[in-house]
UniProtKB/TrEMBL annotation:
Protein name as annotated: NADP-dependent malic enzyme
Any one GO molecular function term: metal ion binding
Record: residues binding a divalent metal cation: 141-142, 167, 292
Transmembrane segments: none
InterPro entries: Aminoacid_DH-like_N_sf, Malate_Decarboxylase, Malic_enzyme_CS, Malic_N_dom, Malic_N_dom_sf, Malic_NAD-bd, Malic_NAD-bd_bact_type, ME_PTA
Keywords: Metal-binding, Multifunctional enzyme, NADP, Oxidoreductase
Pfam families: malic, Malic_M, PTA_PTB
Cofactor: Mn(2+); Mg(2+)
Amino acid sequence: MTEESNVQFSDREALLFHSEGRPGKIEIVATKPMATQRDLSLAYSPGVAVPVRAIAADPATAYDYTAKGNLVAVISNGTAILGLGNLGALASKPVMEGKAVLFKRFADVDSIDIELATEDPEAFINAVALMEPTFGGINLEDIKAPECFIIEQALKERMKIPVMHDDQHGTAIISAAGLINAVFLTGRELKDVKVVVNGAGAAAIACTALIKAMGVRPDNVIMCDRSGVIYQGREQGMDQWKSAHATKTDARTLEDALDGADIFLGLSAAGALTPAFLKKMAKNPIIFAMANPDPEITPPDAKAVRPDCIIATGRSDYPNQVNNVLGFPFIFRGALDVRATAINEEMKIAAAYAIAELARQQVPEEVAAAYGGRTSAFGRDYIIPAPFDPRLMEIVSAAVAQAAMDSGVATRPILDMDAYRHSLRSRLNPTTSVLGLAYEGARAHPKRVVFAEGEEEVVLRAAIAFRDGGYGIPVLVGRDDVHARLSALGVDNPESFEVHNSRNSPLVPAMVDKLYERLQRRGYLRRECERLVNQDRNIFASLLLKMGEADAMITGVTRTYAQSIRDVRRVIDPAAGRTPFGVHVLVGQSHTIFMADTTVNERPTSEELADIAEGTAAVARAMGHEPRVAFLSYSTFGNPPGNWLNPLREAVEILEKRGVGFEFEGEMAPDVALNPKVMANYPFSRLSGPANVLIMPGLQSANISAKLLRELAGDAVIGPMLIGMEKPVQIATMSSTASELVTLAVLAAGGIAR
Ligand SMILES: NC(=O)C1=CN([C@@H]2O[C@H](COP(=O)(O)OP(=O)(O)OC[C@H]3O[C@@H](n4cnc5c(N)ncnc54)[C@H](OP(=O)(O)O)[C@@H]3O)[C@@H](O)[C@H]2O)C=CC1
Ligand SMILES: CC(=O)C(=O)O
Ligand SMILES: [Mg+2]
């Protein structure tokens, strides 16, 4: 359990995260249909012979006919796994899988992890060099110094694809970017600063070399390893890479070295910096404690001794995350896109300045919102952009691609840089950023969320994750044994969870009054209301929400959707003037489709359809998409004619009259809405591109389509989200997983699902 940060999770949760469903974090997905005999003949023998011959005749065509051009290997031997040390190739696999998914998530680079069981540099080099045909780039990871220097150098010489040791250069680029800004903010200049580097391994040596190349004076840098200061003349535990940074100094320990230092760069191990040592540092000290997973010193410990410091760590749960995740995805994206033969100094420096500059620009609204209580403008707690900043991909990758072209290593230069920037922007799905931001926002403004079904294991796991993730305070509804169930799930302090049991809740009399007041004129007797409050968890939970005991509510795992919404609506009304409805959100790598009304209105009227369109467009906007709404039908603009088309046509007219600020069109068939080639047959259509908001004509088609897609499509599905109620209440599906419940809770608490 991590103590001081605002993200906490148990070891059990971390293991469950990795083992749940398909073990591990990656799978391979085919990009071509494999449905028919013909598909198979094209994909494999005999069709595959044609690209084989083409590549044999012209190797460059491998980039056209195979996945090579977008494929990066993350390769390790596990000799320096994060700051955990040499735990072997197999144990490094979770980290390497993690790097592979970050490549995909942040820069749409396909990546696979490779763990090589050897500590012999020669064997490692030979194995990797042989893989050149497979990959577009090689990301070396967590290989200890000094072997990493020999390995990287040899592979760069032998391979014609970009090779980068991330722990060296990824880290150097990001820490340089952070340092440029921290030095600026404290009114210093690189040429004057005194730096202490703790650690003399892969990351430390590369970071030191880069800051010296950028203007820090070599005699102003003292490097330390486990034996203390690396001074000129030291003999113990030296090698040629450490010797290159040996300084003429009387300091012998880290504590001596820090006397008067401006900057501490930690690339060593957890807890390596004793708080008291900081007292000797100069005014406004800059402390980069970058060891992972636990830093050399935590921000609270550092601030306790030096409130005047700027502190950064490698972790996402404190401000100022200086971590190579900000670099490697975008550096390789840019390098792959120009088919660079190497990642050279020019590309690294361009990346460092691009990242530093980005932190100084105005923070976009969605990022600012996510930072919530923390500082969101350039300053001491925001010296470097967050990894989920949606602008990184465009700005850093474009800078790297440009530098590759300018320095002559690009074999396929980009001709139209504006078009390239645009393609980078559209390559990622804004929904994934918004979800990341919604989670951050929830942490910044934790809310109380009622989980109505507090006796269900999946709900309890969601509540634990919700609380331990720092997203809010779960309020559980259940009988006496909820704490015991939490304990059985590995929670150390189950009593710390707030549990409401209607059998002994002091709120019951007031709840009965409230419910009776609402239902007496719907034919309910007081004793029926008493029974509902005492026995129906949805009624009880809804009353907690209604009476302000919580900010949002989640239910739906134990009852059908129809039953749950009937229960909830006995207590919670639609928001004034709104039509409640359900939205399913289908999330692909680069697209998101919002489909409504999938859960509430069986035969919506034209007014209701118009309301649903407006409400869904608002959800799309909140999730980072400019809405393009299509009213769907089997018929396109009246062909074929039918009896069911009028409400759709009238809904379009109503939106026209309302003068809404988004594109809408209808009625049309789904292929017209989604496929630009088919839409081209209707040049008068007011949609400027494929629709992303699909308004369905009725509940039958909507609910069937949403469930079919959920079961059959590759896209991830969020929801259904219930929109238009007076309070944020969400009804999950009975098959929901714990993480789906957490997402719904975060979206409900954060006001996106509203
Ligand atoms: N935030 C980020 O983006 C990144 C952070 N890192 C972190 O940097 C650290 C080092 O990684 P890496 O360079 O790949 O590993 P290496 O194994 O190559 O180097 C480790 C270095 O740390 C030194 N060291 C270990 N413990 C101490 C200590 N208590 N005091 C002083 N020096 C110590 C070692 O000293 P000796 O030479 O005497 O053995 C060695 O020089 C790890 O914690 C890693 O997580 C790495 C990459 C990126
Ligand atoms: C972040 C990283 O690569 C490391 O700590 O090793
Ligand atoms: Mg690493």
